């Protein structure tokens, strides 16, 4: 039997926690999944999964070998992509990871446009609020919004993430508009989950300052913070790439516009420049051209105000 497929089956069972679910996801019969599992266990000479009538779980050997299996398949996929480069058209699979807010507002339309230019390139987009592990999750390209980069990864700048303080007209009509940073202490402030402290960060001549704020709603995702602000729960600091249309339509009102919230970098992250597939290079170049420049496209409306 095909040992690479057996490795894919093992990974899928481990991720799904069920042979039945793995079979459905792989479009195989449960019997075929079981045969592939037996094949890889025979190949490794060890039991990889505990099986019961209700669930499966990894053995110690399974836990130890799962990352290696994922890395092996990543290398095989990379080899396939390198081989496909020799054809006249870009082909292959690109696995991309991003936060939900950036994927929803900016990245997905860009990926669709890229795929139209290169119709034989398949794109798999994974969305989540935690940074993807490129090796374990077999991700080719991650879009990260941060000022703290992993030195082991290659990071190519795409754009700058600016933020603005804003609130809904309903909230401002009820509570009034803050006139200075000190006034934020009198308002409910929606924040991202970040440790035990609630604060907003601003750039001043002396450097970055943290302004303590209070409120009763936090989230680890921008879309939830934005939704709470839209519902009138309080003031929020939100990225311009996500809220442009809300401001344009009057659903959100910028406040304290003379203040300058700390900016973050938007980066394309990948493992190595060595043996980088043509398709991945083309995608990164495309994103740099689309999002780059002196001003990101989503910030143009703020410059015109």
TrEMBL record:
<dbReference type="GO" id="GO:0003700">
    <property type="term" value="F:DNA-binding transcription factor activity"/>
</dbReference>
<dbReference type="GO" id="GO:0043565">
    <property type="term" value="F:sequence-specific DNA binding"/>
</dbReference>
<keyword id="KW-0805">Transcription regulation</keyword>
<dbReference type="Pfam" id="PF03466">
    <property type="entry name" value="LysR_substrate"/>
</dbReference>
<comment type="similarity">
    <text>Belongs to the LysR transcriptional regulatory family.</text>
</comment>
<keyword id="KW-0804">Transcription</keyword>
<dbReference type="InterPro" id="IPR000847">
    <property type="entry name" value="LysR_HTH_N"/>
</dbReference>
<protein>
    <submittedName>
        <fullName>LysR family transcriptional regulator</fullName>
    </submittedName>
</protein>
<dbReference type="InterPro" id="IPR058163">
    <property type="entry name" value="LysR-type_TF_proteobact-type"/>
</dbReference>
<dbReference type="InterPro" id="IPR005119">
    <property type="entry name" value="LysR_subst-bd"/>
</dbReference>
<dbReference type="GO" id="GO:0006351">
    <property type="term" value="P:DNA-templated transcription"/>
</dbReference>
<feature type="domain" description="HTH lysR-type">
    <location>
        <begin position="1"/>
        <end position="59"/>
    </location>
</feature>
<dbReference type="InterPro" id="IPR036390">
    <property type="entry name" value="WH_DNA-bd_sf"/>
</dbReference>
<keyword id="KW-0238">DNA-binding</keyword>
<dbReference type="InterPro" id="IPR036388">
    <property type="entry name" value="WH-like_DNA-bd_sf"/>
</dbReference>
<dbReference type="Pfam" id="PF00126">
    <property type="entry name" value="HTH_1"/>
</dbReference>
